[in-house]
Amino acid sequence: MHIPDGMLDTKTVASTWAAAVPALAWAVRDVRRRMTDGRLVLMSVMAALVFALQMLNFPVAGGTSGHFAGGALAAILLGPWPAVLVVTAVLFVQAFFFADGGVTALAANVLDMAIVAPFVGWWVYSLAVRVSDTRGGRTAGAFIAAWTACVAASLSAAMLVWASGAAPLLPVLGAMGFWHAIIGIGEGFVTAGLVAYVLAVRPDLVRGDARTMSARGLAGSLGATALAAAALSFLAYRRPDGLERVAAELSFLQRAEPLWTESPLAGYTIPGITGDALAGILAGLVGLTVTGLLTYTALQAFRRRRAVS
């Protein structure tokens, strides 16, 4: 679902930056007020986990692939504003290190995957919990929330494509919604599975009643999951994703023109490493490490600024 450079026109790019920057500033303010050691570690590990899971493209119908986005999962486990920063860190690393998503379109991707998806997922999950506040109800709610968040983010991306004059409104909405309704099933299963695991080992975190947010053990297990996902990245289904499929069908794929061509790990490979599988695994390990460290460093900087002020 990553929008590349060139697919959006100048006015739409400017509008997405105008919307995303204040939202990110508010997210920093919200997270800084509630920062603890446990939350800092958990957010950093969650960013690495989302990065790793996004590498695992899976097949859907008609030779199209989908991938996990993680906005709903991050919102359920951390809250919506922390999720905004977590997914933004992932998108930043993907754009500048892996040429995955445009640099000029970074704000658009933040808007779709780091703002729309987490908040839609959080609202749907919160509603589901009001209906059934049980382990089964929360797990089912996580599935529904993740599916809805995936579709909502895809429709947001479709609106941006339409606003740029790249495709007619109804066809692009219909095509994006159709493919991501299928992709969202995979998103839902992964999210529900991870939420079920957290409910089994640290239910207080999912309920939001953990006083200290000390979650070293959980962070360790989620970090191990991220490493496993990166190690399995060579199994990813390498076919066009939902947005690429729609762009090809509606004839706006040719608008994509990479702006940043110096990405050191473009295509999720390591220069000089022979063997696609090994290069992909190493690139994944580098990516999740960079993502986790970047998130940790940024959160520490926000925390120090709060202490000084």
Overview of the structural elements:
With 309 residues, this protein is mainly alpha-helical. It is built from eleven helices and two strands, in the order H-H-E-E-H-H-H-H-H-H-H-H-H. It has helices at residues 10-33, 37-54, 71-78, 80-98, 106-131, 135-163, 169-201, 203-207, 216-231, 242-249, 276-308, and strands spanning 58-59, 65-66. A two-stranded antiparallel sheet has the order 1-2. Helix 9 packs antiparallel against helix 11. The longest helix has 33 residues, at 169-201. The mean pLDDT is 88.
What's the number of helices? 11
Order the strands across the largest sheet as they lie in space: 1-2
What's the shape? globular
- Share of helix, binned: over 70%
Low-confidence stretches: none
Characteristic terms for this protein:
309 residues; mainly alpha; two-stranded antiparallel ribbon; 11 helices; globular
Short description:
This protein is mostly helical and 309 residues long.
Would you spell out the secondary-structure blueprint of this structure?
Layout: H1 10-33, H2 37-54, E1 58-59, E2 65-66, H3 71-78, H4 80-98, H5 106-131, H6 135-163, H7 169-201, H8 203-207, H9 216-231, H10 242-249, H11 276-308
Helix pairs in contact: 1-4, 1-5, 1-11, 2-4, 2-9, 2-11, 3-4, 3-5, 3-6, 3-7, 4-5, 4-11, 5-6, 6-7, 9-11
